[in-house]
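Data availability excerpt. The first of two example chains:
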Amino acid sequence: MKDRVDNFYAGPGALPLPVLERVHSEFFNYNNTGMSVMELSHRTDEIQHIIDDSAARIKRMMNLSDEFEVIFLQGGGSLQFLMVPMNLSHPGDKIDYIDTGYWAEKAIKAAKSLGRDLEIIAASSDRHHTYVPSSDSIKTRSEAKYLHLCTNNTVVGTQFHNFPEVPIPIVADMSSDFLSKVIDPSPCACIYAHAQKNVGLSGVTAVVIRKSILENSPDDLPEFLDYRTHIERKSNYHTPPCFSIYIMWHILRWIEEDIGGVEAMEKINWQKSAALYDFIDATPLFDCPVEVESRSRMNVVFTLPTKSLEEQLIKEAFESRLVGVGGHRTKGGCRVSLYNAVTLDAVKHLIEFMDKFAQKTNYQKSA
């Protein structure tokens, strides 16, 4: 569509055009019901099918065994910051966390409020969160119930490209790289991801949970905050965010059927990020502060020599229909988010714009 911009917002982010077209085609009459999916009762077979098929597709694409359940919740990643320690530990239990910046810090703050023995066993704050701790530097406590980490850090542009090798279960906040690459889920007790970056709209969070880890969950949890409730009720304990799950379902279908699965999606995401990083590294005007081995494939952060140049680039990019390239409000600079729905052509358009901007500026680094 000629009137669509190239969207690099960090979340909610771009949605696949084929998905928008399919949703548009059935918006007023979903599956011959004579209603929009937004009008259907959450107790109908149609809605339960969307929920069940979405869970099945996630299990299939992530190669999850029957040890795992997939449920869909509300409250975003922020609610999971509380539900994880509430379900996977008891007051006084040891729980280990890795601090890699903004969202990891929020998870730590939430868990600390619940009276657990929380320890930050690795952090990247010593170098302004420009890297993620290496696996050999991560030493968990033997009695800790789990290790929590944020796999991709949207604000600072870092990413764990593999799970660290530790002797305790891992809980992974994959909100910004869920289904963007192939992973081995075997070290994980729980993976959670709010949808509005790679797999949908705001309003729904996918939670992948190993059933055996819930055998020791506290018995006095509020029913709504107990993972077992939502597993038993098949993500339909109360009125779920039906439209958000419906959009997720269409995007899961798009990844699996149109793209060809997560492996094919990963290859596209690698091409996009490699092209942009290569250009930034070769152009004196731009600087990516993140250590190469820790660079995110989802969120590319960079700076220019002055704040005024950054503001000028953001303004001119917007005028060129390249939106969402400003950095996080706490960091400044520039940030380009390359989630699943962002096309390779969109990245090429951005690089062409940045190249022209650099030539016009004619900036040369001092020797």
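And the second chain:
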Amino acid sequence: MTETADAEVFAVLPALEVDAVVIGAGPVGLFQVFQLGLQGVKVHLIDALPYLGGQCVQLYPDKPIYDIPGIPVCTGRELAERLTTQIGPFAPVTHLNQQVSALQRQADGRLFLQTSTGTQLLTRTVFIAAGVGAFVPRAVKVEGIETLVGTQVLYHPPETGAAKDRNVIVHGGDEDAVRAAVAAAGIARSVTLLHRRDVFQADAADLERLAQLRDAGRIRVVAAQITGIETSESGQLTALSLLDAEGEQRSEPLDLLLVYLGISPRLGPIADWGLALERKQLVVDTASFMTDVPGIYAVGDINTYPGKRKLILCGFHEATLAAFAAAEYLSGAPVALQYTTTSSKLHERLGVEHG
């Protein structure tokens, strides 16, 4: 990684000085926060999704996982919830629904990091736990809609509370869209489920519930594609311009658009950070899981090394060794091994009574 003119420009902007930043809030990223917390290192945690859990919550929230030590079976959502509880004593600062857009090494060895929403951090260590890349929602591609994202246009919101007492269009044809429409039907003024055709991919129970709500007049289904948006003089979204299955243009009024067009992983700007890559994965030293740039570590599915196995369990191991290595890197001295069973210092950090 080289210092650039851009890095100098970034450096003059206000940035919060921190010891560690973890990029990626999936299971390995969350466990990285825990291990750093045991070492007394405070963490800022960044993820492109609007909630913690990463791939586990996004791709298989209700599917069983059988290979987590000490837990015979749990779902992806349950694992994320357990890990979120586990990091609670360390109170990481979270920056959700934003992607790291720039990472530059400074002349003093620290790392300047900026996100897509303008968050700026100056950190001594970075831990990339981005899995197969940042999960980015597929966007509706019509002119002017980007200015409404976050207010009247929401991509893959984890819950539908924003629909309360509003005229809502849910856009999508998969399980997430069907479930969102069903959930919104209980609180919204009106719900329209919009898809290019009147066919939906969801489990039988969800489809049955959708059919019941359609029959009751609680959900309308429109088969059409979005071709544009209509806004008021104040810039508020008032309607969608649609092309229906018969080739006719129509206007559909709304207050809120919930978009569920799927999530796609993208390596994104990681590829531009000057780190050594091998087949789109970060090369690490297995003694410390540091990349070829001092202070930058990579754990989980984003890294590669001889014998690598893409398992959550392996990522937990990598995060543990990375935390020990980083603690020594930050302190400039060896770190003594302590056990959570007996260490009064670790008990204090965990907020538990020392027996």
